[in-house]
């Protein structure tokens, strides 16, 4: 009997650690399931699920078109200047007209507007592809279609960004933006790879036609959405000075002003990887196109890792955006001083993580801070900075790299991000140490349709 009791006691002692381990293991599994649930919470909303699937395919097609357009211009002219001119025609309209595109986005039914802009881009890709396949591939035709595509993007970009807030509730906006950014980064990888294969097989015209087809899933999914469950804001009534009102709104709102200052500096000086990375591979590590491609792949890998680890985020703050800008600056500076290719590749993954986190946080902060009736104009300004500044930053960084080398170009990007993060932190403390602004200070000019006098 005594031996049996001793045996049971020994078994109980051994069982306790196992029970404790089981409890810990169960907690880990529950936390993992909860994190996965939060990471995919937006996809449980049918309307967002429809948008996400169509958007992911459309983005890949858009990147196919960009690569095919660059290649076609180069085939016709053999000139890098001509490629730059085509890019300027495509992105220039956003820089010049972006804020008015935001006004349109605040005035109209965004789902209908998105149907129109996606259909217009489908027709442009279809007509250009047909002309090129038929052998009518004059330079002026490609330039004209680049300009027309840029004009369509003036409205499409703010409408598409603002539409996300109509698909999910406020608590899911951060998650939806992370998923959108993940789809965009997948498209940036898949689109150019597919474009290379299609161009080698059938030429640039076929790539344009494939891009035209890539708009169909989103168009079909937009038509299938349940309009009754959309979280539509009151529409802006047509009036004078509404573009200026959007500019004043951002200027007078301290958090929006801080976000835009961060975006301007980081986008212009820090995110022109297509300009700096070819020189990094060639100058610093005696590589060629393969090294450039590997650096871009590591940047994409970092973005996907960031998407995995940040998808469960449920909110975003201006302070978090400042920290992300500082992290991007530190990573960029570390890349500039990396002595070996292996270390540079590893650091580039970190740059990709910081870059993805900063861009996603910026869009999320703008949507959470701004009134929904102002989303079109605020996100149009984001597009002006994010897309419209690309030619300016590319020229500036290209000049810096040619004059002082790729390492200095990387240092300019990294140190400028650190500097603007410090300035933004000071702006944040100053703004939040004052009494809060009254709502009238940041109200948009003009009435929304739901606020008209009766």
UniProtKB/TrEMBL annotation:
Chain spans, region Disordered: 431-454
Keyword Cell membrane included in the entry's annotation: yes
Transmembrane segment boundaries: 47-64, 76-100, 258-277, 289-309, 316-337, 343-366, 378-400, 406-424
CDD domains the record matches: MFS_MefA_like
Entry keyword set: Cell membrane, Membrane, Transmembrane, Transmembrane helix, Transport
UniProt keyword annotation of Transport present: yes
GO CC, one annotated term: plasma membrane
Record Pfam families: MFS_3 (PF05977)
Superkingdom classification of source: Bacteria
Locations listed in the record: Cell membrane
Topological type in the membrane: Multi-pass membrane protein
Name of the protein in question: MFS transporter
């Amino acid at each position: 009997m005594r031996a049996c009791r001793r045996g049971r006691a020994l078994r109980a002692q051994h069982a306790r650690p196992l029970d404790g381990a089981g409890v810990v293991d169960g907690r880990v599994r529950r936390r993992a399931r909860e994190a996965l649930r939060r990471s995919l919470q937006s996809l449980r909303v049918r309307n967002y699920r429809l948008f996400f699937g169509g958007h992911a395919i459309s983005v890949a097609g858009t990147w196919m078109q960009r690569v095919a357009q660059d290649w076609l211009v180069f085939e016709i002219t053999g000139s890098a200047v001509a490629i730059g001119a085509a890019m300027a025609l495509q992105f220039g309209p956003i820089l010049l007209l972006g804020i008015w595109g935001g006004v349109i986005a605040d005035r109209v039914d965004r789902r209908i507007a998105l149907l129109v802009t996606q259909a217009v881009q489908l027709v442009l890709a279809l007509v250009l592809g047909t002309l090129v396949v038929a052998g009518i591939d004059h330079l002026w035709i490609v330039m004209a279609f680049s300009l027309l595509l840029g004009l369509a993007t003036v409205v499409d970009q703010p409408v598409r960004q603002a539409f996300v807030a109509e698909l999910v509730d406020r608590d899911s906006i951060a998650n939806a933006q992370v998923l959108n950014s993940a789809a965009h980064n997948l498209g940036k990888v898949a689109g150019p790879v597919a474009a290379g294969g299609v161009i080698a097989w059938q030429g640039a015209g076929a790539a344009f036609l494939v891009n035209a087809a890539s708009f169909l899933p989103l168009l079909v999914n937009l038509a299938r959405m349940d309009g009754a469950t959309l979280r539509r804001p009151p529409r802006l009534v047509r009036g004078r000075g509404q573009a200026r009102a959007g500019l004043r709104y951002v200027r007078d709102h301290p958090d929006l002003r801080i976000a835009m200052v961060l975006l301007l500096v980081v986008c212009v000086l820090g995110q022109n990887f297509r300009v700096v990375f070819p020189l990094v591979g060639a100058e610093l590590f005696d590589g060629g196109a393969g090294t450039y491609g590997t650096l871009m792949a590591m940047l994409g890998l970092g973005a996907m890792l960031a998407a995995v680890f940040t998808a469960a985020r449920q909110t975003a703050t201006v302070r978090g955006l400042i920290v992300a800008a500082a992290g991007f600056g530190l990573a960029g500076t570390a890349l500039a001083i990396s002595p070996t290719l292996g270390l540079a590749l590893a650091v580039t993954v970190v740059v990709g993580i910081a870059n993805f986190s900063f861009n996603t946080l910026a869009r999320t902060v703008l949507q959470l801070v701004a009134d929904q009736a102002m989303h079109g104009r605020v996100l149009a300004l984001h597009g002006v900075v994010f897309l419209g500044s690309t030619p300016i930053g590319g020229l500036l960084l290209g000049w810096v790299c040619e004059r002082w080398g790729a390492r200095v170009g990387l240092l300019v990007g990294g140190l400028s991000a650190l500097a603007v993060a410090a300035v933004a932190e000071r702006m944040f403390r100053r703004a939040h140490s004052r009494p809060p602004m009254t709502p009238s200070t940041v109200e948009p000019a003009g009435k929304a349709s739901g606020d008209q006098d009766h």
